[in-house]
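Sample intake sheet
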Amino acid sequence: MALATITSKGQITIPKAIREKLMVGTGDKLEFVFTSDREALIRPVSKTVDELFGKLHKPGIKAVSVEAMDEAIARRLKADF
């Protein structure tokens, strides 16, 4: 179980294990959805395509073709089933 403490300013630090599971980092937004019994679900807010543009580009790395991506996905699906 991961615990966090609320500061006097109402802030918390999300434990590293939780940030990794949610795949969030500095600047990302989280949504709090309230359920019954004083519980809340925390989920990352989806990013728009515009926010993701250019994030995968790495200088010096050759681009992969769509066909190669499709083949890699097909291999992975076969391995999982």
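Comment: DSSP finds three helices and two strands in the chain. The longest strand covers residues 30-34.
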